[in-house]
Amino acid sequence: MATVPLGFRLLPGVSNNSTRDTRYKIFILVFTFFVYTSYHCSRKPISIVKNELHKNCTVLGINDTSCDWKPFDHANFKELLGSLDYAYLFAYAIGMFLSGHIAERMNLRYFLTAGMISSGVMTIAFGLGYFWGIHSFAYYIVVQILCGLVQASGWPSVVATVGNWWGKGKRGLIMGVWNCHTSVGNILGSVIAGVFVSTAWGWSFIIPGLIITFMGVLVFFFHVPKPSDVGCSDPDQNGQAAPMTDETHQECHPQYESVTYPQSKEADIEHSLANPTQSIEDPNVQDSTALVPTGEEKAVSFWKALLVPGVIEYSLCLFFAKLVSYTFLYWLPNYIKYSAKLSNTKSADLSTVFDFGGATGGILAGLLSDYTGGRASTCALLLVLAAPMMYIYNLYGAVSIETNISKCNRCTCNVRYYEMFKV
Known about the structure:
mainly alpha, 423 residues, 0% strand, globular
């Protein structure tokens, strides 16, 4: 059993077993919500600051590029800004592949802590480029690559934790609400970046970087990857707590670090350990042997993961959903600024509408999947609806601010929701 985090030991205990399980499950759900919120909060500022790195000086009545931040003051500034995106995303894709393997083979608390603190350092490093007067494109590219690698630590870790605590039953609404962390993080990151983008854009990165670093410290003291780490009962496939008898149930309280068995069962336990292949139905072995830990679960290989039903299909769907989602994430403020002729701050604020729609769509999709029992059909329906909404937004998004808000909200309701089903 893993060592119980120091901070988790300070949480108040509860006398009733079922109440303890429920309270700790809720704590983990809320805690991981804010953990991944901080990831997206630190991921969002680059889309806001792009408008400041190249301001379009002609609009400001200046005929040269003195108002731009070098090296984004040349005619190829779009390519340079785009390079920042794909440098991050390419590294993120590689990091996601690697982090899945690493996370299954080490303590998730340590892995997540290291990933969050490293993400904070890289995010702050990008912002320090403003205060240190760094104009080297290579510097920003390297920072983005390193940031993408370490940011990939978040999703596999929080998803594994929530799955360990909540099981795999009907949880569409729960996951729909929980998956709002993506939208909340983007909104928070947009608002913070928007406050400083026109004055000192370095703070647009430094503050979110400090937030995720602080959350990384909290993870070290409070994160518990598995219910068994603190003696709580594991959920079954329906999302309910697995039944445990009073005789063998260990109190779900942080100060307990090992399972204690009744004195009368010691002989049975020793027998089971000496004969690990013996069936629990053997009349010479009591039922308590079924509760003896059998060792750590083996990590799943890449090829075995591909054989899991639905993995390839859902991966392809997620590929196209992410294609749209990250286009909006990185370029929506820039699109709004030049199509609606708004300031950097107003463009940042207006871009948050996309994430409000994403939160709404996720919750509604969760309700629909729970009600119908069809996750795949829900995914297919809303993804099909997302296609025409993208086209409509492109045609009428620049007509007025009101139209932009309406179309953007409807579009993201059909796109962002899908991320919750990849859990």
